[in-house]
Fold these 4 entries.
Entry 1:
Amino acid sequence: MTADITTTIQKAREQSIGDLLRRSARRYPDKTALICGDVRWTYAEMDAICNRLGRGLGGLGVTKGDRVAVLSRNSHAFAALRFALAKIGAILVPINFMLNPDEINFILANSGARLLAVGPDLVEAGRAATSKGTKIEQLIWLPGEDATEPPKDVTTFADLLAAGASPLEASVDSRDIAQIIYTSGTESLPKGAVLTHEAVMWQYVSCIIDGGMAAEDTILHALPLYHCAQLDVFLGPGIYLGATNVITGKPVPDHILSLIAAHRINAFFAPPTIWIAMLRSPAFDKTDLSSLQKGYYGASIMPVEVLLELQRRLPGVKFWNFYGQTEIAPLATVLKPEAQLPKAGSAGKPALNVETRVVNAEMRDVKVGEVGEIVHRSPHLLSGYYNDPAKTEAAFAGGWFHSGDLATVDAEGHVTVVDRVKDMIKTGGENVASREVEEMVYRLPAVSEVAVVGLPDPRWIEAVTAIVVVKSGDTLDEETVIRHCASQMAHFKVPKRVIFVDSLPKNPSGKLLKRELRKRFLRNETLDRAIQKNFAG
């Protein structure tokens, strides 16, 4: 076979995230693809807009492999940027808009991003984050859900669309990098998970099959698109299938309820904190939620009592628990509707394109009921951590990806997460590295020792809790600790509680025993029982 025909065949076999939008536009040109505020695009319109946006980015010098960061709340423009970048082979770097400028600056500098797209309320945060040490050449202003005027000195989304609607000629292969998503670990600094188009699209297939998704769905996307759960478990598969996607940047319970009723939403994802807030809203029982058929949750354990309440008050809704992490794009396991109550608290079984084991330190499968680490093999997986070969090698030790989560597995193969090797706290749907908070608390001169853990909370599911030993002769109060952290960290990382103790439990080698701390402050109850007690009381 000649080199020419090999290249021709490779071109014919190309598939990227951008191709999925084009194909849906050809299948359903006149079907509504996206609704956001007053914006409504058909699939044909959305595909054309993304082509124009890709051309506009090219006019700014963006080429295949360039990194483009986005700091924005959910909007039609965010969604369009995602697919435009995919079409031209540029790499998306989504950033949590709750981070402070220094935290944003690290991600921009580490990723080497050339452009930063900012939402209407994040222009100043973007300017502060790019003031030093990055390769950012300019800001791009993205319109939000509500009509606002852009600053006069910034290139806008509309400016890029003015580039024209001629077809794009970029060649993007499934093995090319689609995105770098930064994830916290036990280290103070986040790691960039490198994900190819292929990895993300294999994950779409798992979501669609195991999540019962269909082209007929009307999906509400209310949780932040900077997070891979909303972006890649729901928006991506929705576009792939040709579903209708309603986007909002206002994940407020009453607003969510009103959108479900107004648009006859039948599929909705949120972490337990949002489901709980919706249940507690006075508008819940006054809103027509009869269209809702599929409810998805993840990021935290759903308290059993809350699950029972959801099933009682939404009897026509089937629920799925999706468990995973950024590094697996992010779906790993699924607890399906029929297992919700029999296996309550479980993360379910491996998704379609995932192989999952729970292993001991020798990489042997643990026995039923024994605790081990969750490891995965899957085409969903990251290609590595950006510019960090040492952490990449450690994560794939033994030929499996090490999740860092500790779990048990039952006789039917259902996995239940019991702890986190990396001491990650999942609070209100956000990941917080306990060590990062500990290092901040340690900056207070009066602190002798501190351990940060997640404790059950009716609002946050896990509340970031600092357990502090004060130096002899010094004094310290809760308000001082919280104010100190709040002045230097994103608000979701700030301790919600501070507990003062005389000493922290350690093993004979001096290792801090955080599990013992959790037990002490849970009064030796299980996590599920403690959470239920909080809700009952």
Entry 2:
Amino acid sequence: MYKIMLADDEGIVIDSLKFIIEKEFGDLCLVEYAKTGRNVIELAEHLRPDIAIMDIHMPGISGIEAMKEIRKTNSNVIFIIMSAYDKFDYAKEAINLGVMEYLTKPMDREKITKALKKAMNQVDDERAKRSNDLIIKEKLETVVPIIENGLIHNILLQEYFKEDAENYKGLLGIEESYGYMIGVVCGEEQRGNYMTNAVGAGMRLQNHYKEVRELIKESFPGVVGGLMANKIPVLVPYAASKMDYNERIELIEKARELVRKMRKRMDISFRIGIGSVKSFHNQQESYNESLNALINSTGSVAHAEDLPLVCEYEANYPIDLEKKLFEAILKGDVNSTLSYSSVYFDWMKDTYPDSIMDIRLKTIEFVLWAEHLAYENGGMTYEFCARTDYLPKVMELQGMENLKEWFASKMTEACRNIATKREEKSSSVVEKAKEYISSRYNKDMSLDDVSREVNISPYYFSKIFKEETGTNFIEYLTNVRIEKAKELLKDTEYTMKEICSMVGYQDPNYFSRSFKKNVGVTPTEYKEGSI
């Protein structure tokens, strides 16, 4: 059904147009008309026409002015102008209003029919586009929460590499480098700093999750995670590295209003904790702050920066540089550790050139923390007296460059210990796996069997095996079997069936195909060529 509005002050024109439309399109069209500019505008508001056939000159408000008014409330209407005046100024203004056709009177049935068919095709295209947009929107309503929950899951469990986080940001259209986390906690009733019947309230909230998610997004346009027991974690991207006081107060008021709204809608008690702004890759810290803020407060809303929970740094302290330095150490990235160590020491030297004792203390503090990370993550053995000479050494070093050199060497040594121990562990696992394969290549063997033997997960074993050997497990096992088969074909008189079984193949035909694929000839041809 196409809704068509006719606008002309001549009754004969209206009747003629109605006759043509009914004759050509029958019941496909709902046709209504008006004879003055004001009536046309009123009719358009009521009818919401798909197509409007307009005369430019009408009593009162002109057709051009009427079109301008109609366009304000109905951007999709398709205008067709009919006029006895074939003037350039009218045509130009009509084009500016997005008029599809400009027809001159007297009416030509063929031209009108052609113009209407063209307009109907445009209406069909627009309807199809709107329908597709709704389908896409419906699908996004299903997919986006899954992607958002994946990002929150990885933030909280720290199960992502940097590139994974960037992929999530790309999928969700997040451009900011910073953000803060919000913890929405529910319960039957708030008593002091905790919620009663958290399990029961969490189960009830399952039925209201979609509504709660929408309410949260209305107040905090961000990434909403799934319900975890009685908690919903929320990530709000933020452009700056710090939030000013006024914005923080406004944020708290928003949270208070959200708590009131959710409590009224769901008849469940809510509290909201808000963490401080952190870099995108340190949102786990912000989330922990949001929950700690609730533990240390009895209000319905608590912000970490209002409580003695967050370490404050002097205005010029390079906190991001410090975090990058220790992240590089944890990754075993020696080059980045050396670079960040150098930049950090230069910052100390340039900012506090007369504070040599403070620089010495900071040097020892960072080195000890780097080694603490190495002990925790590098599989090293802790020795209580291993650092007896550190304090005397730092105190006797003369000149900033000597102190910087010692600082950089110790930081990179800690980093290298983490990297080396990981490499040693990987190498040890792979060597053990090779020995196992070598001793059992003639039996049925799977990736799961070998990973169980070396006591690590199949996924991780597959990854480090490929990194160490350059081939995957199946390729390596096949190569071992083929090499053993070549030895047997050269130096023994076993039958082909016997050799097939001796190297772990149950099907002679499959063995023959595998051998030819890897060696280039069949087992028989290889044996004959070796005689």
Entry 3:
Amino acid sequence: MNNLRSTVATVWRIAIPYFRSEDKVAGRVLLAAVIAIELSLVAIQVLVNQWQNRFFNALQQYDWNSFIWELGVFVVLATVFIILAVYQLYLNQWLQIRWRRWMTEAYLKRWLGEANHYRMQLKGDAADNPDQRVAEDVKQFIEQTLTITIGLLSSIVTLASFVVVLWGLSEEAPLTLFGTEYRIPGYLVWGALLYSIFGTALTHWIGWPLVNLNFEQQRYEADFRFNLVRVRESSEQIALLRGEAVEQGQLASRFGRVVQNWYQIMSRTKRLTAFTAGYSQAATIFPYVLVAPAYFAKKVQLGGVMQTLSAFSQVQGALSFFVSAYRTLADWRSTVARLDGFDMSIESAAKLSGEPRTIDVVNHADDSIDLAQLLLKLPNGLPLIAADGFSLKSSERTLLTGPSGAGKSTLFRAIAGVWPFGSGAISVPAHAKLMMLPQRPYFPIGPLKAAIVYPAAADAFSIDLVKEALVAVGLPQLADRLDEDAHWNRMLSLGEQQRLGIARALLHQPQYLFLDEATASLDEPSEARLYRIIAERLPQTTVVSIGHRSTLHDLHDRRVELIRDGDRFSLRPAGQAADATAGGGN
């Protein structure tokens, strides 16, 4: 019961925001229509149950006129049932796609907002494969929630409707054993109840491991699919290293987990299906056993027997909802668990930036970036970089050097506001535009023009400006391919990608440009040429570079180093040794 209450509370928390959103009117109307049609379908089933009594009595009594009339009644009932069933499916699917669109947009907004997706990776949270959570789990959650909710509601209404019918039939066809009548009020209802309780208990006992097995299956499938995509994205490096055999072995190992878990699901499903199939077959004959003695004792007509069988089947089916829907329920619970984990991971990442003793990135009126009592830490809490009183002055070109692993890129991430681990303050000029160019720039799949001007809209810059930027960075051959749609991170060499990154900076003209080895794949003359172009075209831009080549020294106004200072690194002007008291320098 605790698990049930917890699951219901989680489902409510995930589902209810849509019905309170800006699309709530359409969502509520569609849901109400689906429920109303379901209730109407139950009402038609009650009418069909009553029709069975009259129809089979007409057969038993050889009443031709009544037989023809009842056929006409059935045609009307069947026609109405078909129309309602068709439109219930249509409205249900309409509700699903509106609900899914809203939930997908909401999750994407929360996941991508404020660099939460990056913090989630830093924290190593359990929300693996967010692509699966957004693309598949949201879809399954909506479909299964509607199926189970509508099914449960239908079972409750069906039970309430047919219990009355079955209770009355228990009076008309009393329990008869060996020619003796036993007046047990509602004995047919009690028989259906006991049969269903027995089936439900055994079903849960046999099938409960399916919840965790389905959860693991989805995780293994997503992990296998993710690594297939990763191999495709890294095909060049794998081919150059002749790593196909290793990749094949790793993929086979991951797929082996899929297969092994699937065998466990097969075994458990076989047992569950064996029981539920037997349970369903026994349910067909069980009401005959109960009512046949009364029929042969001529206490009830054939129509009453058929009506009793139909009503018993409806009551037993409603009471056995848990049995018939067990596999769906098991899969649904694992879907809910995955979405709940995704929710918790996003919330944890969002809270991380606002927790006490985290890095505070604030705006100020000065035209420099200032670091005050800054202490950057690794995710495990170990100190990495200390800086105090350090400034990046406007229009100045600064080269940041230091040993590998000293945290140079991490310092850039902290200034960008995406590194939450640490303490202190980073003051950034109000309304200043910062741009970070990493060693391997990111280009979205699509037209080349849209890839270059990212993250701006594709029409934010004219074609002539984009072509001019391409020529300036030494890529005139791409000027006529701006409308070509491709995966540019795979199509272009790393050197070409780095040139495109500089072209992006020339177009956006940021006030602060951070180059994290953004030209390391170019030869030294080409690198020097790009730095001169930046200086000529972006004279007001403050440039901060990470690099290891000595040729970069003459291309910058100032050089600072990260120097080992006890258990951390400290920022120092080039050539200044660390001491025990200094926290930084200008």
Entry 4:
Amino acid sequence: MGGSRSVSGSERESQPRTKKIHDDGMTKTTPNKWKGTCEEGQDFNTSMCNFKLIGARYFNKGVIAANPNVTLSMNSARDTEGHGTHTSSTVAGNYVSGASFFGYAKGVARGIAPKARLAMYKVVWEEGRVAADVLAGMDQAIADGVDVISISMGFDDVPLYEDPIAIASFAAMEKGVLVSSSAGNYGPDFGSLHNGIPWLLTVAAGTIDRTFGALVLGNGQTIAGWTLFPANAIVENLPLIYNKNISACNSVKVLSKVATHGIILCDTKLDTVFMSKQMWFADKASLLGAVFISDSPLLDDTGIGRSPSIVISAQDAQSVIKYAKSQKKPTASIKFQQTFVGIKPAPAAASYSSRGPSPSYPGVLKPDIMAPGSNVLAAFNPHLETATISTNVILPSDYNLLSGTSMACPHASGVVALLKAAHPQWSAAAIRSALVTTASPLDNTQNPIRDYGYPSQYASPLAIGAGQIDPNKALDPGLIYDATPQDYVNLLCALNYTKKQILTITRSTSYNCFKPSFDLNYPSFIAFYNNKTRSVFHQFRRTVTNVGNGPATYRAKVTQPKSFVVTVSPT
């Protein structure tokens, strides 16, 4: 599936320097409907395109108009920051053997839709971002004939009629092109997301069931931990040092006295900010090895790797401390460049992932779904810094582990491309509906997905939408909630948008305001109440369409919130 799909890229999306996006295994023809081109520019020529990368364009008239004397540092579709390289290889990268981040997550890498074709549209520059360039790039992608637009960026605090992504994605939706977008990285505050646009897909970020590195005690006990130290350092069978004065790990002077004596166990179970200070002290003291203790969920979202150290959980730390106290000469080893999968619980809502409700229009529940976004391995610009050892060794890499809703968005975009290939007749709303109604609200322990922004809580739909994306189930959703362009206009009319504001979004006079309605045929429901409201009635009207094989009977089953009564008619 996806062999004939073309997917447009997100901000700064083009190929990395000196590395070619190879087209091994791709058919040697492009889709008949494809009208795009490979645009030459600085350090970029047409030979860099092939049967995988079938288009590359760049849009800079807006940024030049806003800064008439500007000199663009890379005036072409070439990626200078790695963001576009990473996201585009996530959505549709070809198979690559032996990919890793300095030995971590090693294996065969591929995008979600590895046989899809890529077209890149660079609309953001180191010199600035202008809405006109974003709008021009998206409009061109639609005209070129893409099937999916993956855009890992957004505009904050702007109404729909001033948001270039909202305007361009309306045109995309009209032509059956689904726009998949990132929710933003301003979590865990509520109401912090962007791209809360009713006619596109808004994707939240979740963690992955994977961790890196291990602590091995002298008694043979192995504890999976967390490290990204970018080398296979030999920290083998060293004394494990644990005492009250040293293990506070809050003094370079104290740590320096024992730096060469062994592995220091830093026993301070505090937040990530304080632990970062501990790591700084350990780095300055040039320790042979260090073990930090933390249950902070932020560790799953940020790289740790300047010194030969590892982080373990507070629960695992109990047995480590017990071992260190019970032995006259306790020893330990830290194993780097190891990967462990099947970690539980996972996924969880990433703490940084922006939450709903949508400032654009809170009456549509956003985000829609959650996809993997934390420590995603994908291609990167090999001329940029990806890791450091201490403060003076800077390391580049062909691959990088990055976290953000920018990384979650292309996972969903790739699934959309696969669904589009399997169901070419489905509308953008139908595909989004299939993803939402089949998403899973449960983690790999079969409990509700947790929220790392609020560690004691389960994640609400304002954090994860309907839950974790499930590509296989989305192929056969049974019922869908479809919507037409006029349905979205009816919503805008109900919002009392002026004729001019609506026309700014639709760019067409073919729509009318005869039937304004807040009942958008959306596959989720949201209603607002306050603590002063004793009794309130809210009715939602929806129309479902059977896309399964043949007639079917469905029966509604409701799990209702406490103190609420929910009924479905017909049942």
